[in-house]
Amino acid sequence: MTGGGKQLAHSNDYWFEHLAPALVTLGSDLSPSECHGAITGLIATGHLHSESQVLGVLSELLGSSIAAHQLLLETLFLQIQQDLESSEFTLQPLISDHTASERLQGLAHWTQGFLLGLGLGSTQRSFTRDTQQAIDDMVEISRVSLDDPIDPADLESVVEYARMTAHLVRLDSSERAD
After folding, report:
1. To pair with 77 at 20 to 30 A between CA atoms, which of 43, 45, 52, 161?
2. What would be the CATH architecture of the domain defined by 12-177?
3. What would the DSSP string read from start to end of 100-164?
């Protein structure tokens, strides 16, 4: 929930429609999936506690001011934060819901962004063994080739694993901060 208890609920289509052109005007090579993953990774570390900190790191990552798209990126930040902090584990990676090949590519981009955000937002501390194994698995997921055949049911299992890994990192980071 945000300050007034307002639920943020934008669809994947909304984010692809608005985030893709914003990233282009910012001169970024990041895809919407990578950007979403990067913000998720930054928040999951628990070391950046405010939207201004996360958006500051994102601005540095993009190499340009995000002022022209600040409201859009703030809304994205708030939605990801709300989803990551939900006791119902509502975070969903921002990936295409069209063809299996587009979903696979989007998942690879999302995990690459997540790992980037995790690296930028994390300090030199260790995670639990299970969390570290899940992060290592994310590295392998980020390297997937579009030439690799994948069963749609298997793909959905991998998407779910990536989603839960983000929650696991967030929970691990929160527990270690206490």
Report:
1. 161
2. Up-down Bundle (1.20)
3. HHHHHHHHHHHHHHHHHHHHHH--S-PPPHHHHHHHHHHHHHHT--TTS---HHHHHHHHHHHHH
